[in-house]
């Protein structure tokens, strides 16, 4: 949601429960670190080469979804939950669909 708070600038407001798209460069470094650690632990020899898309959701903390491209060429979805103390990876799932058609949350 964008709110025009003055004639000089706009800001995005995160609504509780809804997902808000983020620019990949705006993803918190601690979220990136948690995602990278989980990828390294779960996918042999893999590192995050690029964050393609990102979204966040406020729910008793903050969920951040990253659609990533790994150095292996595979794409993974990583969801990191920050509970105001810890960064916890709650979802790690390979994504094999079309990047052009990717939406979050995914429809099963």
UniProtKB/TrEMBL annotation:
Family matches, as InterPro entries: Cystatin_sf (IPR046350)
Domain of life: Eukaryota
The protein, known as: Cystatin domain-containing protein
Organism this protein belongs to: Giardia intestinalis (Giardia lamblia)
């Amino acid at each position: 949601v964008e709110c025009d708070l003055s004639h000089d600038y706009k800001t995005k407001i995160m609504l509780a429960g809804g997902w808000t798209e983020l620019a990949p460069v705006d993803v918190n470094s601690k979220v990136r670190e948690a995602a990278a650690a989980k990828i390294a632990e779960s996918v042999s020899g893999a590192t995050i080469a690029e964050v393609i898309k990102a979204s966040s959701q406020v729910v008793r903390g903050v969920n951040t979804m990253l659609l990533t491209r790994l150095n292996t060429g595979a794409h993974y979805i990583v969801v990191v939950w920050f509970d105001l103390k810890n960064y916890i990876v709650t979802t790690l799932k390979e994504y094999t669909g079309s990047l052009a058609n990717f939406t979050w949350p995914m429809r099963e």
